[in-house]
Task: structure prediction
Amino acid sequence: QVQLVESGGGLVQAGGSLRLSCAGSGFSFSRYAMSWYRQAPGKEREVVATIRTPSGSTYYAESVKGRFTISRDNAKTTVYLQMNSLKPEDTAVYYCNARWNYVYWGQGTQVTVSS
Result:
């Protein structure tokens, strides 16, 4: 069955870094645009970054530009989100998303940035 499994979340101080990973299985990973979304308490889920295929072109939310980097390894069916210079406002549950002819979601991983 289709699975998206996120890992790498945790607690970090402001200014620190985390690297999220999302391992996909059960679908044609290389055909899917992959995104990271986040949802903070009391707020709507928002897209953070997207990496398309096959071009590899990327999109970033304005709030994370210059600090976050999305990448993918199709051989490992994994997408990454490198998060640097983290801020308390980056605190949220981060979700992996795969989109092509279907849309799939991971279960989420908590990122907490302390001030």
User: Anything to note?
Assistant: The mean pLDDT is 97. The radius of gyration is 13 Å. The first strand starts at residue 3 and ends at 7.
